[in-house]
Amino acid sequence: xxxxxxxxxDEDKIAMLIARFRIELKGLxxxxxxxxxxxxxxxFREYMDKGYLIFVAENGNKDLIGYLVxxxxxxxxxxxxxxxxxxxxxxxxxxxxxxxAEELAKKLGEDQVYNWIHPNNHGIISFLSKRGYNVLNxxxxxxxxxxxxxxxxxxxxxxxxSY
Length: 163
Description:
The chain is an alpha+beta fold and about 160 residues long. It has helices at about 10-30, 35-50, 95-105, 120-130; strands at about 1-5, 55-60, 65-75, 75-85, 115, 155, 160. The strands form 2 sheets. The protein has a 5-stranded mixed sheet, sandwiched between helices. Strands 6-7 form a two-stranded antiparallel ribbon.
């Protein structure tokens, strides 16, 4: 397996991973959805147009099996999305992708990567905790989306939020 920067030729392969990632995220909010390749291609092109760095994990068959999107803002690296195909998880792929983001942050003079995560995405929370990320930075508060099924309660200090 190699970790490399994505290029425009990866569009078809990475679009499928983005689509799968979006389905998993919606599932965390109790929303059923289908794969939307065209929407995922548009998302990939938007990342490329904005100059985001996209690291991809490629197996020996040249299949893309994971990706990490990094946004850089004022020398701060934000991990926009990290996804590894479910059939390839628990093999260190996410760690190798995330290492690239941390290396990038160090090159820019920072000692960490910032992350936006769903509070009930226990997989990424556990992953980041093992890497030493355990400081809650900000809370985003919004109204429920149409058709959203709020399935959990999250407590932060003395406040409780639906999620």
